[in-house]
Amino acid sequence: MIIRNRPGAFGxxxxxKGSVVPHILPQVISxxxxxxxxxxxxxxxxxxxxxEYTLLPFTIMGMALSIFLSVRNSATYDxxxxxxxxxxxxxxxxxSLARASGIYLSNERRKELLMRCLAHTHLLRGQLREExxxxxxxxxxxxILVEKALSTKNPxxxxxxxxxxxIAEAHKAGDLDSIAAAALDRHLHGLAGIQASSExxxxxxxxFAYTLLAHRTAYIYCYMLPFGxxxxxxxxxxxxxxxxxxxxxxxxxxxxxxEFPFGRHTNDLPLDAICRGHEISIAEALGEPAPEALQPVxxxxx
Length: 302
Known about the structure:
The protein has about 300 residues and is mostly helical. It is built from 10 helices and no strands.
């Protein structure tokens, strides 16, 4: 996620970090060069009597393509925002569990419960990003427990299940009554719901037809546009065509990034920073030294 103060008008024009320009620059340059060739051919009258378009068809096509891209971007932004709400709710569940566990559990059991829940958040991050997060797991956890979790198909779910077993053991031992056990389990239930929602977003892409239609229509439109512009724009045709290509291809690329919000693209969610926030909350609740919050590097918070 890009974290930076809004620059001025000139700074916005030159901003590179967080922009989709690096991803679509080849397409924009290609459209500009193609438009320059069409303009040169038209200026030498090689297109006379062969291609004579007005801007009306391109206006209609452009409006239709803009509406379609807007609908697609709205759908992908909804996925991004839902993912952010889920991981924001995880902050609430972890902090509430840290507070409630201090009421009902002994210090030893409380720390073990919170460490398992913290490991769950790291393991979920690793599953969503398909990364190895073994080094980020709390060192106080049993190596046997960690190995068992990592050997399963869903390590995050296993670790959360082990946290529930810890509460069950305390209840069976008479250290927790039913009401206290239910109060603690309610937060584990919330974490399980967050994991299920995150997996739904990560593993259910938008229908492929959306992506295919957007790509095809954008390419067709941008490569046909110079033939409609050349008669009225002359040598400015490559400039106008490149600006249109930047807009359409940029929206298309941005929607691709927002569709899968758990990656490491510049506009994806800062899962590392959120997990570090959990570490800080748990450490402070336990009265232990808390790590520093992660800061943006080159305007990007991971």
